[in-house]
């Protein structure tokens, strides 16, 4: 009687399942995107404040050489812009919160039906609440980001009485800040730094020049301030 044949299949011990490696890689990418998302939003908010207030101050400076009028206008724009950004962000995030809370309630009911006891574990409930957005924090972060950019031209113009020098310093300080914000945004977005900086700087120059020119045109047409 012939002996039965035995077939042995060797499995390498050091071979890791590919799905585990991909899962770890995806987690690292997800963590990076989550960190970069709010940083980039902060940079964009600061850039908005910088361009808005610098352009507003340039517009007033086109028809009024008074330093106090220019600075007060800048501060008024800072307060209005920060409040507008905060309120808009609060309303937007609160709407998102309402949607996610309703979704969480539906998920709890589904889980309770699956468990057949009508009770959802406290651990799952706590984890779900921790993931919910915070409207107050989002509003505060948006206002602070806008204000951090808006304060740059105000500080640049605050200590200079000479009209032409003040305008030049505001433009120079705004340009440097725009280049810095553009570089930070490029690093976070993994894009070309030089191209990003150039795009942001040119956009800021266009906003300031258009505001200055159009306001001067209105002033020269007989509209008195």
From TrEMBL:
<feature type="transmembrane region" description="Helical">
    <location>
        <begin position="67"/>
        <end position="87"/>
    </location>
</feature>
<feature type="region of interest" description="Disordered">
    <location>
        <begin position="1"/>
        <end position="20"/>
    </location>
</feature>
<dbReference type="Pfam" id="PF01988">
    <property type="entry name" value="VIT1"/>
</dbReference>
<keyword id="KW-0813">Transport</keyword>
<dbReference type="InterPro" id="IPR008217">
    <property type="entry name" value="Ccc1_fam"/>
</dbReference>
<feature type="transmembrane region" description="Helical">
    <location>
        <begin position="167"/>
        <end position="188"/>
    </location>
</feature>
<dbReference type="GO" id="GO:0030026">
    <property type="term" value="P:intracellular manganese ion homeostasis"/>
</dbReference>
<keyword id="KW-0472">Membrane</keyword>
<dbReference type="GO" id="GO:0140315">
    <property type="term" value="F:iron ion sequestering activity"/>
</dbReference>
<keyword id="KW-0406">Ion transport</keyword>
<comment type="function">
    <text>Vacuolar Fe(2+) uptake transporter.</text>
</comment>
<keyword id="KW-0812">Transmembrane</keyword>
<keyword id="KW-0926">Vacuole</keyword>
<feature type="transmembrane region" description="Helical">
    <location>
        <begin position="138"/>
        <end position="160"/>
    </location>
</feature>
<keyword id="KW-1133">Transmembrane helix</keyword>
<comment type="similarity">
    <text>Belongs to the CCC1 family.</text>
</comment>
<dbReference type="GO" id="GO:0005774">
    <property type="term" value="C:vacuolar membrane"/>
</dbReference>
<protein>
    <recommendedName>
        <fullName>Vacuolar iron transporter</fullName>
    </recommendedName>
</protein>
<dbReference type="GO" id="GO:0005381">
    <property type="term" value="F:iron ion transmembrane transporter activity"/>
</dbReference>
<keyword id="KW-0408">Iron</keyword>
<feature type="transmembrane region" description="Helical">
    <location>
        <begin position="200"/>
        <end position="219"/>
    </location>
</feature>
<keyword id="KW-0410">Iron transport</keyword>
<feature type="transmembrane region" description="Helical">
    <location>
        <begin position="38"/>
        <end position="60"/>
    </location>
</feature>
<dbReference type="GO" id="GO:0005384">
    <property type="term" value="F:manganese ion transmembrane transporter activity"/>
</dbReference>
């Amino acid at each position: 009687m012939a002996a039965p044949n035995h077939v042995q299949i060797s499995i390498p011990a050091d071979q890791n399942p590919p799905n585990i490696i991909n899962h770890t890689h995806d987690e690292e990418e997800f963590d990076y995107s989550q960190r970069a998302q709010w940083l980039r939003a902060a940079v964009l908010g600061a850039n908005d404040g910088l361009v808005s207030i610098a352009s507003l101050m340039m517009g007033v400076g086109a028809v009024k050489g008074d330093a106090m009028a220019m600075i007060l206008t800048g501060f008024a724009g800072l307060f209005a812009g920060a409040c507008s950004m905060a309120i808009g962000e609060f309303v937007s995030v609160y709407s998102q919160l309402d949607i996610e809370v309703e979704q969480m309630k539906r998920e709890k009911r589904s889980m309770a039906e699956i468990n057949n006891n009508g009770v959802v574990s406290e651990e799952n409930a706590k984890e779900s609440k921790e993931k919910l957005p915070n409207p107050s924090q989002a509003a505060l972060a948006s206002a602070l980001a806008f204000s951090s950019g808006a304060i740059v031209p105000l500080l640049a113009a605050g200590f200079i009485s000479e009209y032409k020098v003040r305008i030049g310093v505001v433009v120079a300080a705004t340009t440097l800040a725009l280049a810095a914000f553009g570089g930070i945004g490029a690093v976070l977005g993994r894009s070309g730094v030089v191209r990003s900086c150039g795009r942001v700087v040119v956009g800021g120059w266009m906003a300031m020049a258009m505001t200055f020119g159009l306001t001067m045109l209105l002033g020269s047409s007989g509209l008195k301030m």
